[in-house]
Amino acid sequence: MNNKVFGYARVSSKEQNEERQINAFKDFNIDERDIYVDKQSGKDFNRENYLILKHILRENDLLVIKSIDRLGRNYNMIIEEWKDITKNIKADIVVIDMPLLDTRNNKDLLGTFISDLVLQILSYVAEQERSFIKLRQKEGIENALKKGVKFGRPKIEKPSNYDEVMSKWKDKKIKSKEAMELLGLKNNTFYNLIKNSQND
Questions:
Q1: Is 160 one of the catalytic residues?
Q2: 115 and 106 Cβ atoms separated by less than 8 Å
Q3: Domain presence at residue 153
Q4: What are φ and ψ of residue 92, in 5° steps?
């Protein structure tokens, strides 16, 4: 049985494009059906297609990734996954953007030491970048709030006849449907307005 070559690509959201990573796999002649893509955060390894890929990975197979941060962004978890794939499953890994991270080469003690060291440094950098992204998002939100940008749904404005109509509705002089018509509100808006008024 021939050893298989798999490609794994990851982007953080559905809006991002994984094409750059897929194109990089072409040099390895990876069959399209052997390329697995996840569109979610790299904070952990609980990703559907990654777990499927890892389940079918066998000894002497090759896993190709574009860069270490595509594998994940959690330092300790990257190290653990790397060990699990290379030591337990006994498959090889190639990181395209970092030629030193190619477990097919330099399997002697020095080669292993160098690749382990590079892996630890890159994994640390990947996690730090994730921390910086979160910090930038937080700072961006704080700056937007200072400038008066409102997040979430806009507050529903009460129609001018709201108090009068609601008084009749509460006294059961009119039904909900009539109250909505008098206020010019749809079903959801009508009940959301009542709910918001109760919370005020």
A1: no
A2: yes
A3: no
A4: -100, 155
Q: Tell me, what CATH number does 48's domain have?
A: 3.40.50.1390
Total tally of structural domains belonging to the chain: 2
Per the listing, tokens 């991002």 go with 16
- Domain extent, residue 188, equals 162-199
33 and 111 in one domain? yes
Task: Kindly give, in sequence order, each residue whose CB lies less than 8 Å from that of residue 81, ignoring residues fewer than 6 positions away.
Answer: 45, 71, 72
Q: What is the rounded CA–CA span in Å between residue 94 and residue 68?
A: 10
Alpha-carbon distance of 143 to 161, in angstroms, equals 37
Query: Does residue 167 share a domain with residue 116?
Result: no
Tell me: the pLDDT tens digits for 119-168?
A: 677 666 666 666 665 666 766 666 767 777 665 556 667 788 888 888 88
